[in-house]
Amino acid sequence: MNAQPLTETEIKHLLQYTYDGIDDLISTKSNAYQQLSKTTPIEDMPLSEAVKVLSETPQLLRRPIIFDDHRLLCGFNQDEIRMFIPRDQRVLKMQAMAKHQMA
């Protein structure tokens, strides 16, 4: 992401899938966020300005960012990340694990 940051258009696209807007995309534990919040908290910025800042400072974004046509996951969550694996593949993996445990 640092080498090829998201564009403002891409960030706006991701925002369509969020429940809490910009808050869902921000890594509040990052150094970049800590520094920015000392001067102008991103939550207090107008949306257009916040999107621009996120595009210019990719360190503010939670990682990984995974999305499809219906869902968005920002930040690592082992349980939620599985929802992006097709169901048939999850079933096969579970069957293989069960066979391995029985052996």
Topology:
Elements: H1 8-15, H2 22-25, H3 31-39, H4 47-56, E1 65-67, E2 72-74, H5 78-81, H6 87-102
Antiparallel strand pairs: 1-2
How would you describe this protein?
- This protein has a domain at 8-77: Glutaredoxin (3-Layer(aba) Sandwich), CATH 3.40.30.
- The longest helix has 16 residues, at 87-102.
- Helix content is 50%, strand content 6%.
- It has helices at 8-15, 22-25, 31-39, 47-56, 78-81, 87-102; strands at 65-67, 72-74.
- The model has no long low-confidence stretch (mean pLDDT 84).
- The protein has six helices and two strands; from the N terminus they run ααααββαα.
- Strands 1-2 form a two-stranded antiparallel sheet.
- The chain is elongated, with a radius of gyration of 17 Å.
- A hairpin with a 4-residue loop joins strand 1 (65-67) and strand 2.
- It has 103 residues and is mostly helical.
- It starts with 7 loop residues before the first helix and ends with a helix.
